[in-house]
Amino acid sequence: MKGKLNLLFIMTDHQRADSIGMVQGGVEVTPNLNRLAAEGVVFNRAYTTCPLCVPARTALATGKYPTKNGVVFNDWRGIRAGDHKPIHQLLAEAGYDVAHIGVHHIRVKPTIQERVPFVKWIDNSSYNRYLAGKGIDATPPEGIGAFKREVIENQNGRPARVKYSNTRCAVWEHPAEHFKDIYFCREAVEFLRDRRRNPFALFVYLWAPHPPLRVPEPYASLFDPEGIDLPPNVGLIPEGEPSNRRRGIAAQLAEGVSEREWRRVWAAHLGLVRLADTGIGDILKALEEAGRMDETVILFTVDHGDHLGQHRMYQKMEMYEPAIRVPLIVRVPGCPHRSFDQPVSHLDVMPTLLDLLEIEPPDNLDGTSLLESIASGTSPPDKPVFSQYSGNPTVGDIRRAVITRRYKYVYDPNDTPELYDLEDDPLEMCNLAGDIKHRGVVQRLHEIGKSWAESHGDWVEF
Hints:
This protein is of the alpha/beta class.
């Protein structure tokens, strides 16, 4: 194992791609990730395979598209999970000390904990025990229900009343040091300070900036709501929007929210992004102090983004850019900074990391290694990437997306399709699918999506 590179893998939840490099009200949102981006390779158009936690994380960890690995919704019990080796297992089999710190959303059979001899495992249960040991009751004074909104959700074709995190904002009343993500980052720092000679693979899965939007100080007051520069389509519905979209969860959660409220939502969300960035900075500092920076591959990404009011939507669960485009930064010792604008997929992450760590990849992965781009600056292959949504707690609303360098095509078997010109209309405010001039583009992308679906176990008829 001498000479093997270590791996530091960091993922946040709900963090938008445009948060990297963002400045709001004169305040830098992600100073530590900005420095990582300046030193690493940045893929500006990386896409999640699903704008939902469990399918997105399972697809990335297995290198297989959700309909292929079986986990297409938030399958917490792993009922649909299959026998797919996650990257954690391949690293352990290659002799790495593998650690998991943070939320646990990956579903395979046998479970990831049964497959991998983790040298350290910290999750939500660990955090709850930590809070209990400190005598802290994290239940909000307003009650949990104050941070929920009831919506009507399609579950297996039937309407169901379900509560989702709403746009309510509040200050988390305890010291920031006891906040979940600060705790996770502290555990990661301790792991790095205790490393011996074995190569390690540390996976850090942060919760922030996932709602509910309860933010500890000083982060709760860091961004002035009145100083937020909102995207121009916050609160606006696209021209030619399919009728089903207003019945989707993301649209229902945004109904009736004013611009003033969206400003508070943005301020709270960005406060949580900055909190996570501070913790990430502590992890990177610990890695450097341990003398392991020059022998460690560092990868940062996010499971999915958040609409934050754009298209009059909140949270994720749709195919617009704020929800499915994600940050992807890879820092490799000895490789200079590079930046690419070609679409790439979360499915490309696993083969890329295995190539970087010189581990033989399985032959049934769905992505393409980006090693050549990282090492030599060659542009990633010009290929379409794919994303899907199939419902949250069970099969429900269906979306299938094909994204190319210029266009995004979204297919809904129960409604009209969508086509957006991402060059001329980056905010996706004009659906071109009904335009006769774009009929050929729609047909071509529909056939590409159909072919991908048929080869990846999709039951949806195109």
